[in-house]
Amino acid sequence: MKVLRLIFVNFLLFNFYVFILTCNAFAGKKDSVRVSNYKLIPLPVLSYNSDVGLNYGGILNLFYYGYKRRFFPDYKTNVYFELTSSSKGSGTARLSIDYKEILKNFRGVLDLGIMKERSLPFYGFENLTSKYISNYEDPKSSYYKSMLYFNMFRRMSYIRLGGYLDVWANRLKFFGDINFNKIDVGSPRARRFDPIMHSDTIVTVESLYGDMKSWGVINPEEAKGGYVNFVTAGVTFNTRKPVEVSPFRGIYAEMLLVGAPHFLFNKNDFVRLYVTYKHFIEVINKRLVFAYRVVASKRLYGKIPFYAKPFYYTSLKRFDALGGIKTVRGVDRDRIVADDFAFANFEMRFFATSFNMFSSLVNIVLYPYFDAGIAHLEGYEDMLARIPENRKSDFNKSYSGVPFFSYGMGAAFVIDYNFVMNVSAGVPQYKDLGSVGIFLGLDYVF
Q1: Entry pTM
Q2: Range of 260's domain?
Q3: 185: part of which helix (H) or strand (E)?
Q4: 64-75: per-residue pLDDT in tens?
């Protein structure tokens, strides 16, 4: 399987390189680019990443630059619509609006959608994190349980409304929003062919989630999910230039407090802190950029339901953590789930070439990267006692306070500095945490 993945990555990189050469051959001169107030980018999606498998569907991305547009400035409004499905049973319907001039000195954001995961990775949580035992998913093994044993089902409906208030020169801003999330969880679901009905049916299969539920490790009140509604307040500081999406220099820092009180219909109330710091250093003018990101999460108060633990929030987006293509690349998605964690990403972005294509400025960027992560895991000694004796050895490896790493290579196709198509592959330090992480899709990791 690992060999097939590497072949697949090489195939993608080869086609990416051929596409670059073809575009370069037919590209016009840089001064031939027409200046426009709007740019609509419709994009059919046929991408792949290790988290969700083969992803297909469509995206519409509308940028508004303003009537006094400079040459490729930062956008004033970005409208993003996505409708996609994947081979692993994921589905996303999303509308996002980023309006930087809704009022004077105020930037508004709206994000709403539905995300379904028929086979979301699940290895437990905190010090109940399981070792990966391949025999449980190998049909040829006498220990076989199911091919989706380390998975679960999750459907999340959400709406987020908030904004930024500029308090100093478009650099220092206060941020706040309100989030409503309905999260449904359960055993993983697989398609099976019904020979009598001559059609595919969706069935639930044996899983670690099901076992932990039957052992009483997962609280019965949390076993099916619930509401996670919260308010966020924080501060951001931004000096990135020339644009936010693909900067050459500058820093971005933010500190967010996430509060989920009982009166917003939460089963448990909690407060969580997220800190993010990004730094972009222009080593060679418009040619070489050293970029890094450092992130930390800390629970300050209360109890977080297990289904609400594996998230990393920023003022603009939400990601699964810890592991996956958006945090520690190469490590399996949600491999380590904890209230308290930290991770870092380091990239050396080389702007190999630029040219004009279809009235747009295109940059080709190559970058090696190195990622690292660490988590502090709680004890849960009382819950460990509920696990059967013949299964306790599955959980005897503690990842608490143990740093782990991954490394890889990527390439990006950047249009007008604001739209990024990205391909990358990464390998984790420990085989128990993953094999090869592959990503072919949109945007930089940071």
Answers
A1: 0.84
A2: 2-442
A3: strand 172-186
A4: 887 655 445 567
